Amino acid sequence: MANIGYFNHSQGLQVEKVNIVTSISSRSGNDPLEKLEAFIAPEALDDSAERCDAPKCHPETRVAVQDDLYSWIEHGDAQSPSPDSPRKMKWVTGPAGTGKTAVMGSLTERCKQNGFPVACFFFSSTGSIGRRTKTAFVTTIAHQLAQHRQDLKDAVAAAIEADTIVFKRNLRVQMETLVLAPLREVAAGSNAELRGVIIVDGLDECGVEQNHDSTTAGSRNKPTRTKEQDQLEILQVLHQAASDPTFPFRILVASRPERVFREFFDSKNSPASFAQKVDLYEDYNVEADITLFLDSQFSRIRRRYNLPSSWPPPGTVQTLVMIASRQFIYAATVIRFLDAVHQEPPEDSLKAILEHAGYDSI
To answer: Could you name the domain of life of the organism this protein comes from (predicted)?
Structure first.
């Protein structure tokens, strides 16, 4: 059996990984799609076991941004600078804690429920090796796309048979070989409309791969590149896809507003950017969503502990919304603390939270 993302922590990560998988020869090796499957990162899928506790948007929250993004996915950008050159990418950004992953997860789920083809990749700096590096990015996207149509699956399989070492090539070549060329082939031979979306979350958490050249003294575990270079490489292959006039999908990228992303998406080289920026911190009424979330959760906690309708005291929710400073993660952390199994009743726990924030009474 192949060891996927194997780490030996007792050796101080001496063994960074066997590989995302062992070589394809360890599998049956006859079916090209089996070879492809050997090089994907299944943990990066939205419904993977590793993401069983991943955040999703609370019902009736983040409705506006979800509706806006889903409408763009389904119908395109009515405000595109050129009808002949529609923008196929959007950048969803915001500081840590503003709910990017929850929005991307809920949007992926919505696409699936509505039967809209979606391929996703959820990066995580604390997840398995496949989710922390660029290695399996294109192959994982290609594998998902191939599941949506038999003719596309056949085209991807033929591409692998024609280039049996494609999995060892760089991301640009993999994108062309495993995604763009098969899509062109299917589009040319089919009257059925090709539609879909690629959702990439947490790209800022993609780290640099390690160099394990044991032949050079002092070189072991020294990265030959920076994580920003690897993140930029992924952005470039996504732009490569979006720039292809025959590419039929939309692309959503979510990340924190770090320099590599600002410089890539906020390029002033042309008057019309190729991608639209969606700022979860600035562009939407986050306070209203946090208020709705807290009201709903406090109601649930009252029922659970048989608390009076007067709890929490008037003004508490507004105070917590102010303290949260547009960060959903703060409100979610407060609720998790109140839900935690401990000896303090929720009233005392909430009082401690407010006192810690400098509010002795409400």
So the answer is: Eukaryota
**Cβ(320)–Cβ(334) below 8 Å:** yes
Residue 253 φ then ψ, to 5°: -120, 125
The vertex-200 CA angle with 197 and 201, nearest 5°, equals 135
Quick one: how many helices (H) and strands (E) in the chain? 14, 5
Q: How far apart are CA 151 and CA 155, in angstroms?
A: 6
Whole-angstrom distance, CA of residue 263 vs CA of residue 93: 13
**pLDDT one-digit tens code per residue, 190-228:** 777 888 999 999 999 999 876 544 444 444 556 678 999
Average pLDDT over residues 8-22: 37
Residue 16 has pLDDT above 50, yes or no: no
Which neighbouring-strand residues pair with 197? Answer: 118, 250
Kindly report the pTM of this predicted structure. Answer: 0.78
Check if the beta carbon of residue 20 is closer than 8 Å to that of residue 4.
Answer: yes
